[in-house]
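Quick one:
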Amino acid sequence: MKRDSRLSSVLHALLHMAAHDRPMTSEALAHCMNTNPVVVRRTMAGLRDAGLVRSEKGHNGGWTLGRDLKSVTLRDIHQALGEPAVFAIGNRNENPQCLVEQAVNAALDDTFHDIEALLMERFGRLTLAELAEDFTRRLAAYKQNKA
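Output:
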């Protein structure tokens, strides 16, 4: 079963963008993320529509952050990606008249709803600034260990 890694990929790209003081091209971001520039452009378009990033065409153009890192939460980004399904598991709907299937689906639906609500609440508290600070700490520790 394939996982949807767009949120992780977008966070990766946004942190690279935050670390640069100039626009980053789709090609540069694709290199950082080990993907195709077309994938970067398609994904970033949704973020641009949500006001999270901006794009400039032409010489010295590229992608830049559209908002301060402290004001962007993981929930904002998840929503800009179209709110992809959080779970790869789901209900069986082979026989909707089956009372056992109805009972199982009701229990799973309630549980999935509770877990997704908790996840979205936590995503709403976690900002890009916090991720950037964690990256900065990790980079400093890495450099210190290499010295």
